[in-house]
Amino acid sequence: MEIACVIEKRLAIPACPGRGGGPRSGHADLSDPVAAAEATDAMVRALEGIGAAVESEQFGEGFFAATGLRGLYGGDAAGVVAAAGRAVGEEWQIGVGPTRLTAFLAAAEWPRPVPVAALRTRLGVPEREAEELVEALERLGVEMLRAFNRLAADQVADRFGPLGLRALRLCRGEEEPLRPQAPREELVEEIELPEGTAGRQLDRALELLVDRLLAAPQRKGRTLLGLRLGALLSGGGSWSVEQGLGRPSAAPRVLRNVLGPRLEELPGPARTLRLQALGLGAAARDQLELEVGGAEPRRRRLRAAVREVRATQGAEALLKILPVDRSSRVPERWAMLTPYPEL
Amino acid sequence: MPGLRRLYAPQRVAVRTDPQGAPTLVEGTAVEAVREEWLVEDRWWTPQPLRRHYFELATADGRSLTVFRGAGEQRWYRQRA
Q1: Where are the strands (E) in chain A, listed by range?
Q2: Which of A139, A335, A339 sits opposite B7 (nearest CB)?
């Protein structure tokens, strides 16, 4: 099995040449998540165009099985890489290996021997947690993957816990099979906002977007599985959130109710609001409507409830759970209680 | 940080043990069985290492409790774990 990895070229630029000399293995530029998501979607669609079934779980990268495409492109991996390169363009780098990790290392052009820092974005945990593991390994003098690979699994489990063990399995080539996404159909609507749009006007714009998305002919009566709500900000930059629906739905009220609260996360005034379907399910007639908020907007009801609890029980009565370190083996580090924010 | 409180913080609890150190009585309630025990060793590379011996217990009144004792300590704590 040969796996090909495609990553955005700027993720392979050396970030700290003095320390390990390695390239930066990281996430796409999240200051502009809409652009990063669009670039990644375009890359995935381009690869699907040459027949690849692509797995892409984070912005700026994708994986596909190169083996199955050999017959189409000259009989070897080089032919597949060349075809993929032509499809995605010069902004992307491609590497091939027997596992995701080795393909990624090849694509990102990590130097050999490979430093343990290469694991930072490969463990499927927040980068801070991965960074702690990498730093702990480096402090103990385990600076290269091949040295890490020589450690016994029980020693690693004892010293570094489940994350260390996961890293070791990764280095030994034990990975989950590829999970390619179903080819994505583009279903997206966008609306320009007048200057200073906020509050009720913004809610109204969202309603309009939802109606337009549901009315799009290419939906063909099918339900939506998830949505990406994005905005171009008046002050420059962009913002984007992804929202699952719990169960497939094409009910405007359900969509509005799950997306409405997300609008509050907008970091500043927006000039454009954009809504994209992230997957399409079965036809709507087979689906039940998920009752989320009733006629009254959920946010308003929540605000009233918060006020009422504070008025009767005091300001400190309402707290929310803030996840801190769910992977810790010490339960009191899992979460903190913090005052519930003003709504 | 002001306003922040720990969740699942350990709480002191009175425990009597057998000669091997396993709990036999928790807050006056007899321990029916030790269902599981494990060691947690963390931050051993820092000046404040953490080493705890946890016990998951079934008590005579039908409850399931998790208690621990810190290494070198005689004090016992109860914790959701």
Answers
A1: 3-8, 61-65, 92-97, 188-192, 222-233, 238-249, 270-283, 319-323, 335-339
A2: A335
Instruction: Give the start-end residues of each E strand in A147-305.
Output: 188-192, 222-233, 238-249, 270-283
Which residues of A, range 313-332, sit inside 8 Å of B by Cβ?
319, 321-322, 328-332
Q: How many CB atoms lie within 10 A of CB A295?
A: 5
Identity of the residue numbered A295: A
Q: Is B45 on the interface with A (CB under 8 A)?
A: yes
CA distance B30 to chain A (A): 25
If you count residue pairs, one on A and one on B, with CB atoms under 8 Å apart, how many are there? 40
Other beta carbons within 10 Å of A18 = 6
List of residues 6+ apart from A230 with CB closer than 8 A: A33, A34, A37, A238, A239, A240, A241, A273, A274, A275, A276
| Nearest-CA distance A201 → chain B (Å) | 34
- Residue of A135, A160, A324, A330 to mutate for B, most B C-beta atoms under 10 A: A330
Which chain B residues are closer than 8 Å to A319 by Cβ?
A: 5
Q: For each of chain A's 343 residues, which pLDDT tens digit applies?
A: 889 999 988 766 444 444 343 444 444 454 566 677 778 888 988 998 888 888 887 778 899 998 888 888 888 888 899 999 999 988 899 999 999 999 999 998 888 899 999 988 888 887 788 899 999 999 999 999 999 999 988 888 888 888 898 899 999 888 888 888 766 567 888 888 888 777 888 888 898 899 889 888 878 788 888 889 999 988 888 898 888 887 778 888 889 888 988 888 888 888 899 999 887 777 765 444 445 555 556 677 777 777 777 777 777 778 888 888 877 778 888 888 887 776 5
Q: Number of helices (H) and strands (E), helices first, in chain B?
A: 0, 8
Assign B57 to helix, strand or coil: strand
Does B70 contact A at CB distance below 8 Å?
no
> Angle, nearest 10°, between helix axes A127-139 and A153-171?
120
